[in-house]
Amino acid sequence: PPPPPPPSPPRELTGDPYTVLGIARGVSMGEIRRVYRSLALKFHPDRNHGPGAQEAADTFAKINGAYEILGDPEKRAAFDDFGSEHQDGFNSYWEYKQSGSKGGSNDFYQGDSMVQRLTADNFDKRTAVGNWLLEFYAPWCKPCKMATPVVKQAADRLDGVVEVGAINAVTNDALKRRFNVQAFPSFFLYSSEHQIYLKFPWKGPGTFVADVQPWVANALAEWETLFHSTAVERFTVAGTFDLEVLNSTDMWVVMFTSGAQCPACIAALPNFYRLSIDLAGVARVGVVDCSTPSVARVCTDQVRKDQRIRVPPYFYVFPRDTKLLGAPAGEALFDGSGAVEPHVVFPVIAMIARNALVEATVENNAVSKGDSDAFEYGPPPTPPPPPPVRPQYQAPEPKRKFVQVGSSGKRTARLT
Asked: Is 0.90 surpassed by the pTM of this model?
């Protein structure tokens, strides 16, 4: 006999779960949990009696069905990849039901609703919203296995602060190289919006929960300051770069990066934001992502014609005058080759920019003329008077005394 047809999905699972909960597709897991709790409390049968009780019960069932999909990171990922407003968007109902059970025993966080399993295929889509605490682990790594319970505990405590994701580095080598992972487990605080990450100083599972919470809070507070209190221009269109930098009389310090695939570029961003604070009032600061097609022409004109630099990120200073379009207009300072230690690069860039400002400001022998407007902060102070000349010591003239010598009584002068 032919096999029986697959069971029909329950009524409460039909429809788009995002529509049922009234949320957008890109929201975080924390927002999904918050909305679900609010709706479940509102339509719970114990709180609804009378004529509208059945309608409330139906809505409650739909809410639970929607959360069954979206509250499980694996099922949500499967729905986003294969689903639609109807479950027949999956190849089969069996595929839909089993979407949360892929990966086998090598995935430490199978079925966990607080720790989302991320792969190279879904990473950019999943992490597009919010800040993330990422763990890179290997299935054969005993410390990683020991860390699993404390990571789940930390994810529960960080609910609403950051999203927590786990990445099997063995099966996702591209992400491993993207974050320059050297050991397991490794933890990173990551912001897709700003393309920036910070590595957590892992000391072992014993202190992880106590250490990671204040570390995340302090890092997010610093990022808030860097991203919202600094004026770093991100150029995404070549025409904007031409207008703001090349057609400007302002001095610019620009970092050219190679996008998310360049670990050194991402690691340099926090210090580059700090550099913008040091250069406030001296030079403007910008970032160009050369992996963005709409701005690639700028990288071709300004960087790739320069044979002196090889490894991204590249740091350039553009002087305080109008530059020539289509020609290298900036001066290459450093690249990511490691010839100069990273902690030295940014103070040196700040010093170079300040010195360039002085050279560009004091022109036409303005110092000798005494022009006060040739100085950024007014005329130079009057030099102090020279110290008084100390008189040299002069010995006194010797005195002469006449004394009587001999019996003749003759008087002779002698020095005394």
From this structure: no
